[in-house]
Amino acid sequence: MAAPRQTEDELLPSQTEGYKVGQEKTLAELSQLDKEDESLQRWKASLGLNADIAGVARPKKVVPIALFLESPTLQSPVSLDLTLGPEGVKKHKKDPITIKEGADFSVGIKFRVENQIVSGMKYIQVVKRAGMTVDKDETMIGSFSPQSDAYTKIFASEEAPSGMMARGTYNVRSRVVDDDGTIHMDFEWAFKIAKEW
């Protein structure tokens, strides 16, 4: 019997009733708003809303760098390189990360934002074992302006399951989507629960 396929519905972000996404504006448009307010212009510049790119309307872009796992009982974080391109990232599904049963751990992502402000980014993660969904997490990441330095977001700590029944390999699909429904990251990886790291 074939394992059930993951549906796209599982990876859709939740919607807040009554919330409406605001009109998208380019950095050039935002930099021109309230030009006479000097303190507001300084604040905008600190967010990366500089007028020096006025007239250049490039699409917003989130550049994934890494997904990582850290734990107080782990000597150094374990990282998945997301800069390898679609084919390179596929190896993360074939080579699972080991998580010690019962250990507290946190998942985090590292990314860069280019060209435009990205608002309301959410991280969605669906975990499956033997084709059955065992967990789904959705976490608000936030809104980010473009900058050359990478952003890092670490999610809430959780405890790995323990016991003989929990040990084994789990398949994960992770997605980052913004308020506009733009999918910035979508990849699969795997982890296995074992007695030791």
Automatic annotation (TrEMBL):
Protein name: Uncharacterized protein
Lineage: Eukaryota, Fungi, Dikarya, Basidiomycota, Agaricomycotina
